[in-house]
């Protein structure tokens, strides 16, 4: 077998990983968007659709991992090629988890449906979800370009989602204190809000992986955080 042919096959293996990551990203984005839409509209059919689609992401992650392991074993890649393959494994894991979080929110739609939840409570999640989805979309665009600079910019935006999450956390607690009938639906919404905030964290993880793939180094400094929900209601010292 000629070396040219070997290189061509190797390139196709790397392109396969890139293509499958992009496909996973598109599915994960849609699952999250649909889960929030189902929550706001109490759409049980859409929630069930999101739940059923999770298996697609699980299978895609499995295929990426298998292809990556086989490629490493056959090609013994080094430097940027090895970072590319290992990065694919890490990003696939983050996208699979994003799908899990969307599925978990879809399951909450079913739990909330019989509680008579006022729609305005669910709408409070929409802005948080918009930011998280924008973060996810932008980082997938950066994955296509492998821009370390843009990846670092996305990493620096993580605190925006944290701040909105903390604000929403306080708002939901207020609803719960004002009317005990809101406790059950608001508890579910608190879990949904945390899931969405975690989606932003996974998008930031992907940004850090892209930075490493492009540069061979980890981003400098701690990622910015502005999540103070754990201090809400705590006594001042």
What report would you give on this structure?
- By secondary structure, the protein is mainly alpha-helical.
- It has a single domain (3-223), classed as Methane Monooxygenase Hydroxylase, Chain G, domain 1 (Up-down Bundle), CATH 1.20.58.
- It is built from 7 helices and no strands.
- Helix 1 packs antiparallel against helix 2 (44-75), helix 2 packs antiparallel against helix 3 (79-112) and helix 5 packs antiparallel against helix 7.
- The longest helix has 39 residues, at 3-41.
- The radius of gyration is 20 Å and the shape is elongated.
- The N and C termini lie far apart (72 Å).
Provide a brief overview of the structure:
By secondary structure, the protein is mainly α. It has helices at 3-41, 44-75, 79-112, 119-145, 148-156, 158-178, 183-215.
Secondary-structure element order, as H and E?
HHHHHHH
> Globular, elongated, flat, extended or rod-shaped: what is the shape?
elongated
Mean pLDDT: 88
Fraction of residues in H or I helices: over 70%
Number of domains: 1
Point out poorly predicted stretches.
Answer: none
User: Helical stretch count?
Assistant: 7
CATH superfamily, by name, is Phosphate transport system protein phou homolog 2, domain 2
Strand content is under 5%
CATH topology, by name, is: Methane Monooxygenase Hydroxylase, Chain G, domain 1
> Which structural class matches the secondary elements?
mainly alpha
Over the alpha carbons, how many angstroms does the gyration radius reach?
Answer: 20 Å
CATH uppermost class? Mainly Alpha
